[in-house]
Amino acid sequence: MTTAEVRSAWPDHPGYRIEATPCGHTAQVWFGDVLLAESDRCLVVTETDHIDRLYFPESAVHWEHLASSDYSSVCPFKGRAAYWNLVAADPVIENVVWSYRTPLAEVAAIAGHVSFYQESLRVVVLEHWPDGSTVTIAFPLWGDATELRRLIDVVPTGAGHFLGPAHGPTRRNVVEGGQLLAESVVAASKTFVGQRVTSASMIFVKSASFDAPVNISVETLRRGRVFSSAHVRIAQDGVLRSAGIVLADSGADDVMRDVEPMPDLPGPEAAVPFAGFGMTGREIRVVEAAYDPDPDRLGPPVIDAWVRFRDDPGEPYLRAALLAQSTTHWTIAAAMRPHRGLGEARAHITLSTGIMKADVAFHDDVDITEWLLYSNRAFWSGRGLAQGDGRVFTRDGRLAASYTVQAMVREFAVEPAAMGRDSGTAM
User: Fold this and answer.
1) Is the dihedral of CA 250, 253, 256, 260 positive or negative?
2) Gene3D superfamilies from the entry (predicted)?
3) Alpha helices, H only, 39-144
4) What sign results for the dihedral spanned by CA atoms 78, 82, 84, 85?
5) CA neighbor of 31 nearest in space, from 102, 75, 95, 89
6) Distance between CA atoms of 357 and 232, rounded to whole angstroms?
7) What distance in Å separates the CA atoms of residue 388 and residue 62, rounded to the nearest whole number?
8) What are 276-328's pLDDT values in tens digits?
9) Distance CA 381, CA 407 (A)
10) Which of 40, 55, 53 is nearest to 114 (CA)?
């Protein structure tokens, strides 16, 4: 069957969407330490109900590592696909590369391009920062740090009311608790103008999704000359998602100052780049590569990570909010490290995981374009929960913030598929 003989489904499904847009970054495909493809002219193909794929120009592929397969398939929206096996692997990985050599007219842009199963290979994009550094980010991408900043910079809609914009469809359509924590910091900062948020404590009662906005209400408990406090509630589609308390103050000179010392750890140059989370504009380096999805790699319940952003958001409260957003990344993974057979790779697939409560206190102002050390430990796990705390230090040893996190880690009572969910929607 040729593409000309493929019965197109486009007339029957006018709402179906396939878009091919330039990636904007250099992209690579790796199998171990073998480079399979590299190009700065890739296309990101976004398709209804499918994960994003990168399509590489045929000229960018190292074909010596591949061999043509007898297998082919037909997509009623794209046409007939030819496949290649990865002969650089032992044993050979079959049908890991494909191409629509003569695609249907609606997706003509992918002609002359090939794609790779990122589930079996390592697909990354390389972001070149203004300071000359190159940051590696795993594909598919969630988006850029400027989009995260847009989401947390909530917009006033009336006295005590704010709107957090929607992000749009994404592979995992669940907003992380750290983002809601950050939005509460921004909403309180815009309520108590002239004061600095010093702490926020939020519980997360139901997950929020990226494809709809959130409504934030700030009920002032007390607006004082020195201290102010507020009750913050975050809802989506009329359903409460998060609630908590935020404290702000006007600042004062030191009466005393005593600071916990920064742990003696390797700096970011010696830490291992972490390509996960799929966000350009933010770089993460993990000490001793401790954030590892491998369920059989054991270690202490500790993760130390260096984090920095490409761009300064300008406002101090946005710097604090972006700092807070990253505090909820680590506790679950740290708690799993001592336990064989557990790992982040099982999250949302066989394990139900999520952040239930987060508290953050801000101690010193920071420049988020400089390296910050998130030093995390999970000090208790059991009864389906994990508890952890952490500190955020500047490169020169100042304690910028501290936080505690309570998380859920338990087996699914019902498999996600039986609930009509998958790893993109299951907690």
Assistant:
1) positive
2) Acyl-CoA thioesterase, double hotdog domain (2.40.160.210), Domain of unknown function (DUF427) (2.170.150.40)
3) none
4) positive
5) 89
6) 14
7) 45
8) 888 999 999 999 999 987 888 899 999 999 999 999 999 999 999 999 999 99
9) 9
10) 55
Give the pLDDT of residue 420.
56
Instruction: Mean pLDDT check: name the lowest of 65-74, 204-213, 291-300, 301-310.
Output: 291-300
Whether the pLDDT of residue 1 is over 60: the answer is: no
Under 8 Å between Cβ of 342 and 182: no
For the chain, which domains are there? Answer: 10-138 (2.170.150.40), 143-418 (2.40.160.210)
Residue 355: CB atoms within 10 Å: 25
pLDDT of residue 423 exceeding 80, the answer is no
Q: What pLDDT does 379 receive?
A: 97
Do 371 and 310 touch, CB atoms closer than 8 A? no
Q: How far apart are CA 304 and CA 266, in angstroms?
A: 10
* Tokens standing for residue 388: 């952890």
What CA–CA distances, in Å, run from 73 to 82, 108, 166, 182, 358? Answer: 7, 18, 36, 45, 47
Sorted by sequence, the CB contacts under 8 Å of residue 55 that are 6+ apart come out as 20, 42, 43, 44, 45, 110, 113, 114, 115
Q: Which of 376, 374, 335 is nearest to 354 (CA)?
A: 335
Distance in angstroms (rounded) separating the CA atoms of residues 49 and 33: 32
pTM of the model: 0.90
Place of tokens 């690579």: 28
Residue type, 76: P
Q: Where are the beta strands (DSSP E) in 250-327?
A: 272-273, 279-280, 282-286, 302-309
For the residues of 235-248, what is the DSSP string, one character each? EETTEEEEEEEEEE
* DSSP conformational letter for 42: -
Q: What is the rounded CA–CA span in Å between residue 149 and residue 146?
A: 5
Identity (one letter) of the amino acid at 10? W
Helix (H) or strand (E) holding 216: strand 214-223
* Structural contact between residues 50 and 138, judged by C-beta atoms closer than 8 angstroms: no
For residue 30, the surrounding DSSP H or E stretch is: strand 26-31
**Upstream peptide bond of 261 is cis (omega within 30 degrees of 0):** no
Interatomic CA distance for residues 248 and 285, integer angstroms: 32
Res. 11 pLDDT band, cuts 50 70 90? very high
